[in-house]
Amino acid sequence: MKEFELKYGCNPNQKPAKIYMQDGSELPIEILCGRPGYINFLDAFNSWQLVKELKEALGLPAVTSFKHVSPTSAAVGIPLSDKLKKACFVDDIEGLDDSLLACAYARARGTDRMCSFGDWVALSDVCDVTTALMLKREVSDGIIAPGYEPEALEILKTKRKGNYNIVKIDPNYVPAAQECKQVYGITFEQ
């Protein structure tokens, strides 16, 4: 897919809106469910960058929660104590100890449940069933990951009456070293 039409831009009155690669190449993503918007993709790509870098640096599964282009939390996959499971409201999750990715999600979401309400989630690893089951019960706008186990994808597709935003990103995609962005007609470069 070379371009994806968004519901609208940053605000509902900003139409048309789309994402595309400046060089005309294929987007490094696949939309598996839903119709993400402008802010959703800002959250998705910023959060993906964070979990990808955490995984590369620490060698552990990483999860982050973003809301309105700001990280609310991030965590890596380290098993939780029984007290921490209770504090993160995941003491009822079967198989939690068997999934370091689910442990990372529990830690990230449990850090600040209020700020994470209605968030965008990024996973550094393929989404497994345990993580999908935890995510299913939370209020969230979408998820980005390098892949989804088939059963996990089916679980996530049931969220929000089948309109949950599910994005798969190519884990081998490397952006250009120089990044440019325009805001209000002014170009930012880093």
Please, how many helices?
6
CA gyration radius, whole angstroms: 17 Å
The N- and C-terminal alpha carbons lie at a distance of: 27 Å
Total count of strands: 10
Number of domains: 1
Helicity level: 25-40%
* Mean pLDDT over all positions: 93
Give the strand order of the largest sheet, numbering strands 1, 2, ... along the chain.
3-8-7-6-4-5
Largest sheet: 6 strands, mixed
CATH superfamily: AICAR transformylase, duplication domain
Supply the CATH architecture.
3-Layer(aba) Sandwich
Structural class by secondary-structure content: alpha+beta
> In terms of per-residue confidence, which ranges show pLDDT below 50 for 5 or more consecutive residues?
none
Give the overall shape.
globular
Order of helices and strands: EEEHEEHHHEHEHEEE
CATH class division = Alpha Beta
According to CATH, the fold-level topology is: Cytidine Deaminase, domain 2
| Beta-strand percent range | 25-35%
What does this protein look like?
The chain is α+β, with helices and mostly antiparallel strands and 190 residues long. The chain has a single domain, classed as AICAR transformylase, duplication domain (Cytidine Deaminase, domain 2, 3-Layer(aba) Sandwich), CATH 3.40.140.20. Helices cover 31% and strands 25% of the residues. The strands form three sheets. It has a six-stranded mixed β-sheet. A two-stranded antiparallel ribbon has the order 1-2. The protein has a two-stranded antiparallel ribbon with strand order 9-10. Strand 7, helix 6 (150-156) and strand 8 (165-169) form a beta-alpha-beta unit. Helix 3 packs parallel to helix 5 and helix 5 (129-136) packs parallel to helix 6 (150-156). The mean pLDDT is 93.
